[in-house]
Amino acid sequence: MKRELTKILNLPEVIVKAKKEIEESLVLEVESQSKTAFCPRCQKVSHRLHQNHWHLIKDLPWGEKEVFLRINRRQFKCDYCSKPFSEELNFVEKKQKYTKRYARFVTQEVVNSDLLSVAKRHNLTEDQVVSMIN
Q: 0.70 exceeded by the pTM?
């Protein structure tokens, strides 16, 4: 089941570890397949896990269900410069609560509709929609 969900999710280097359905939402616990991360300061590979930080990130809906990814954005400590840093996730911008592809999806809907109806359809505020299209 998890292998099929990983294929359906279609995010590179991400695997689905668990799923939970809550009312009209689907929460997928996902994990990066990589066991290392590159330090943004010195560009060296780090293997040393420092902390775990769990985030809930909104992704593309599946049919009528909202989809949220429960992702561990791990914090590593660089072996060379000894500075802690959070791993980069190529499918979500830093400090965002939604995937890049979800932002593109919402932006396309705004192009074909209006801001208020898109916000209502996705349980978002108009300000959240505006931040996605900018």
A: yes
- Convert the pLDDT of each residue in 53-67 to its tens digit: 899 999 999 988 999
Query: Kind of pairing, strands 75-77 and 37-38?
Result: unpaired
Does 52 lie in the same domain as 115? no
Residue with tokens 């609560």: 97
Check whether residue 11 and residue 60 sit in a common domain: yes
Which residue is it, tokens 């208020």?
116
Q: State how far the alpha carbon of 94 is from the alpha carbons of 25, 26, 87, 112, 119, in Å.
A: 24, 23, 10, 28, 22
d(CA 42, CA 79): 10
CB-count burial class (<10 Å; 0-12, 13-18, 19+) for 56: exposed
